[in-house]
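Amino Acid Chain and Its Fold in Token Form
===========================================
Scope: a single protein chain, as residues and as a discrete description of its fold.
Amino acid sequence: labelled as such and written in the usual single-letter residue code.
Position: the record begins directly beneath this header, with no further notes in between.
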Amino acid sequence: MTFLFLYTEIAEYFLACCKELSKHGEVHIIRWPVNKEAPFQFQENQSLKIYSKSDYDFNQLQQLVAKINPDAVICSGWIDKDYLKLTKPYFKKIPTIMTCDTHWNGNFKQRLATVISRFTLLNIFSHAWVPGQIQKQYVLNLGFKEQNIQTSFYSCDLEHFESIYQSQKAQKQSQFPKRFLYVGRYYEFKGIKELWQAFIEMQTEQPNEWELWCLGIGDIEPINHPKIKHFGFVQPKDLATYTSQTGVFILPSRFEPWGVGVHEFAASGFPLLLSDAVGAKESFLQEHKNGFTFKAQDIADLKRVLKTIVNTPEQDLQAMSVYSNKLAQSISPKKWTENLLKMANSR
């Protein structure tokens, strides 16, 4: 089979899934330019053919898609109008699959979308592919039929992060690193300011040996504090250097439709602290067993879970680490591929 992805910003985890898919046919990816706040460097892969959308005008894109002659088209939502125009001619001829990671919250805009979708999206896409149940509810409300919806749209490169877990497991079982780890962009919506404030207040109220390590870049200036360290953007291949020295992953986002990083660090054996706005908590966090949730933008609640971790015995943190890794096995590039093949083979 020949698969065509009309994609926004690609990342290493997506390419790991496409590499697994390439065992079943040709994989072509038309993508947006690399985001300057997430400047991933991608390894060349002979099994994948990647095209930058910015290199083509619309007529050239049409010619490219016709030349590829796909057996299934997978499109990143409905944000890119060119992508919708490229997909429309294939509707009812081959599976046309819309991906969506938006949470259903029932606001006016979403309810309006459920009416309009009957005349727009449902005349372009035959299937919907979502990360989890809260997104599934949205596409059900948009009018997609249950049998035409698949979940597990996002997967980390499970094999890679499993290898990190196995290589660092003995070291952490011997001495658990007392460092929180944040990996993400330095933006307001990521909740990083709340994280810094909560951590500093906790250190004042209950001085302890824990540190906070932050990996990322963005438009927020890094805060200066003796127990908060900043390392800038780190390529995925260099992440193991930092995971070996840190113990608990924290994502305080005000808004996070899913968060593949949660899967990556669960697979790496990290206990998790996640705000209630993080979609991936659905699959990878079980309260008290491998971490804790807290209310987004709530400094006091964030401070509560930080203190809970600081006061947790080392052997319990080690047990949480094992449980995180166990939960991470539920989604993989192999399962991702299986779910796509179900849609691609349906008529």
